[in-house]
Amino acid sequence: MTLAEALSGGVVLLDGGLSNQLEAQGCDLSDDLWSARLLADGPGEIEAAHAAYVRAGARALITSSYQASFGGFARRGADVAGARRLFRRSVELARAAGGGAAWVAGSVGPYGAVLADGSEYRGRYGLSVRELAAFHRPRVEALVEAGPDVLALETVPDVDEAEALLRAVEGCGVPVWLSYTVDGPRTRAGQPLEDAFALAAGNGQVLAVGVNCCAAHDVLPAVETASRVTSGKPVVAYPNSGEGWNAARHTWSGPATFDAGLAPRWAEAGARLIGGCCRVGPAGIAELHAALHS
């Protein structure tokens, strides 16, 4: 069964934050490559983190390529061929952890994630759509070589980058989901979500559109908007813990507000891919599984 077929029949449970699970396993993620560094230095840790989410009930795993880039790998001594192997490894590790029981989503994080300065929560990098598409296309090609079930164009902060990402995946032969990071009814760059979701409305390659790495209380109105604007296209929703990220100090602060009990309402409104993002661990995914199957 393809992921698209599964979404037509019900909800598919996503995993949670990969970085927090790796840290729980004792991994050091202080490098600018973040979890992608472990593709070279500790692939077994990545596979173990994916497996923890499978045990919690996840049936779709997002790869560790969110912050990966050819430039970032080059700074650690990898040539182009070596970098491509690391991108492919991210898919292979998730596939191995799933053991045939989970779909694999190749993560294509935003340009701001590669900068490692928190700018994915601001957008508006000063680059054109054409420049952003040229940056993302080699990452897409490297992931596609390993055969993921879907590409996750995730944590997108503004409409310009969403347009660039959709250009970058044209003709790659793999379906995608497009998910924005939002603040209330707007993207992080301040654009109305109606405009943001409209980009995916007539695009057959986009199997789902929605939000991630946002507060849980922002999910329901976003799901309702996405479903309305795209005339019922499946919606993806995976909020973070609700804590705030301090990019300068690389620390989280504030209370955790993630509430798995909200998920059934997201599903009723059209969400078909539901999970967690930063700081939502296997326990949170298990809670989602229970809430969605009660």
From TrEMBL:
Positions that bind Zn(2+): 213, 277-278
Domain of life: Bacteria
Pfam families named among the record's database cross-references: S-methyl_trans
Signal peptide range: none
InterPro entries: BHMT-like (IPR017226), HCY_dom (IPR003726), HCY_dom_sf (IPR036589), Hcy_S-methyltransferase (IPR051486)
Domain Hcy-binding: 1-292
Cofactor(s) the record lists: Zn(2+)
Record key words, sorted: Metal-binding, Methyltransferase, Transferase, Zinc
Gene3D superfamilies on file: Homocysteine-binding-like domain
Record PANTHER family: HOMOCYSTEINE S-METHYLTRANSFERASE-LIKE ISOFORM 1, ZGC:172121
NCBIfam families registered for this protein in UniProt: PRK09485.1
Name of the protein: Homocysteine S-methyltransferase
